[in-house]
Write a structure and sequence with these properties.
- By secondary structure, this protein is of the alpha/beta class.
- It has a single domain, classed as L-arginine/glycine Amidinotransferase, Chain A (5-stranded Propeller), CATH 3.75.10.10.
- 28% of the residues lie in helices and 22% in strands.
- Strands 1-5-6-7 form a four-stranded mixed β-sheet, with helices on both faces. Strands 4-3-2-18 form a four-stranded mixed β-sheet.
- Strand 16, helix 12 and strand 17 form a beta-alpha-beta unit.
Length: 465
């Protein structure tokens, strides 16, 4: 294991890619949906097929007959979604309960004599040291990274028996959150449910490698989704409107209502689509990454807490650029688009008690040669949360929060302003929501790539809410 942390390579970022959806061609997608809708309206030639028709039954294979007799969908992807529901599976919540098992994915790194990016190594080590030894860790890595992972585990005092290594040969990213959702069936073994497609790097291999090397399972749904755009509570799942829209127009999913119903059947709870009715205007979309929502994953600016307010509603935190500007005594900037985040607060306030956090829009490249100048957001919503009752009956609340004022990183940014926002966010989490705040290392590199700590983790099991 190489314990030295090298300086950044001038033309190579860390071992991950930017967390944008790959090749989103919005105009082309809109045209395809419009053509399909017209065809469905004008012709009966395309219909949602009934898998239970007598005529079709005569031509089925034995497996397909078995599927139909169990009243399961004929598509194998549909079978995956059906089984998640039939097994009593519900979405592992985003905040409710103590984390019992956490998934991390270590990207490959191709520099000579360096097996893990210096940026990634610091993030993993800081997170593991804060989370501590009393839980299980499943870590997907490559064979030449085993010593690195075991070194982090040993250094922070995590017993070897609490570590499960899953070996991958694929080019996976650090974003463990996105290629699937975690479902908790009644038998206790986690099911990683994948969507119909996931195109970033080779992350779609992660769930299959986990299923082959652990007791957890993998199934696939016919729905299109990414984990960072779905947040779970015991009563309702929050789903970013963009992925409701991406599914509409497909046969059997012609309307938003049908898509939402399909998500409810998969997840096991009602769903709330978070986003606006009309698309963001074209000018805003030159800065923002969403279509019907300001950022393409809601975990960047929406956070359920599991805390019940005096009104009886769950507290949800929403990020606002206006709060960041106010703390820094700055005028609003043209690229803030705070009105879209205000819309999110108003929409969610019908169902939740809303508290606002700072969200700072930034344009830059961290001052690193060869890195792209781009818009990104510093987020204090993208956190890991625990809210549970311990074995002695005491309520515990912890938030593992990214920070952005780390002086050791040497980025060409205003660390003084970032320190003020770190402190403000910590104060809100502690004084207004009642969480003990555990600050992580500086994560501006992850923010530049459209993520933070919630994005680089996946909670597989919780207990004790």
């Amino acid at each position: 294991m190489n314990s030295e942390l090298p300086t950044p390579h001038p033309r190579k970022g860390p071992g991950w890619t930017i967390r944008y959806p790959t090749d989103v061609r919005l105009d082309a997608a809109i045209r395809r949906k419009e053509r399909t809708a017209e065809l469905l309206k004008e012709s009966n030639s395309i219909q949602s097929p009934s898998p239970y028709s007598v005529e079709r039954h005569n031509y089925l294979s034995t497996l397909e007959r078995d599927i139909l007799e169990m009243r399961m969908p004929a598509s194998l992807r549909g079978v995956g979604g059906y089984l998640c529901n039939a097994l009593g599976g519900t979405l592992v919540p985003s905040a409710h309960g103590r984390i019992e098992e956490l998934l991390l994915t270590v990207p490959s790194y191709d520099e000579p004599e360096v097996t893990v990016s210096w940026l990634d190594a610091r993030h993993f080590h800081a997170l593991l040291s804060k989370l501590g030894p009393d839980r299980q860790y499943t870590v997907v890595c490559h064979s030449n990274q085993i010593d690195d992972v075991r070194g982090w585990i040993s250094k922070v005092g995590i017993p070897e028996e609490n570590l499960t290594l899953v070996i991958s040969t694929f080019d996976t990213s650090i974003w463990a959150q996105d290629a699937y959702i975690a479902m908790s069936p009644q038998d206790g073994n986690t099911i990683l449910c994948e969507g119909v497609i996931f195109t970033r790097q080779e992350d779609m291999s992660i769930a299959d490698d986990i299923a082959a090397q652990t007791q957890n399972s993998v199934l696939q749904s016919r729905l299109f989704f990414e984990g960072g755009n779905i947040l779970g509570t015991p009563d309702v799942a929050l789903i970013g409107k963009d992925y409701i829209w991406w599914n509409t127009g497909r046969v059997g999913l012609e309307t938003c209502q049908l898509v939402e119903q399909a998500f409810e059947e998969l997840i096991g709870t009602p769903v709330l689509s978070v986003g606006r009715e009309k698309r963001l205007d074209d000018t805003a979309r030159q800065v923002l990454s969403g279509i019907f929502q300001p950022i393409f994953h809601i975990d960047m600016y929406v956070t359920p807490t599991g805390v019940t307010s005096g009104s009886g509603k769950e507290v949800v935190l929403v990020g606002r650029p206006s709060l960041a500007r106010k703390e820094l005594n700055e005028e609003p900037q043209p690229y803030d688009y705070d009105e879209y985040f205000e819309e999110v607060s108003k929409q969610l306030s019908e169902h939740f008690s809303i508290i606002e956090l700072p969200l700072l829009p930034v344009y830059g490249n961290l001052g690193l040669e060869g890195w792209e100048m781009k818009h990104y957001h510093l987020t204090w919503n993208n956190v890991v949360i625990e809210n549970y009752v311990d074995d002695t009956g005491v309520r515990r609340r912890f938030v593992f929060m990214p920070t952005y004022a780390d002086p050791d990183r040497g980025y060409d940014v205003d660390t003084g302003a970032r320190a003020r926002l770190d402190d403000l966010a910590a104060k809100i989490w502690k004084e207004m929501v009642g969480f003990e705040v555990l600050r992580l290392d500086g994560m501006e590199d992850l923010a530049w790539a459209q993520g933070a700590v919630h994005c680089m983790t996946k909670t597989l099991r919780r207990r004790g809410f």
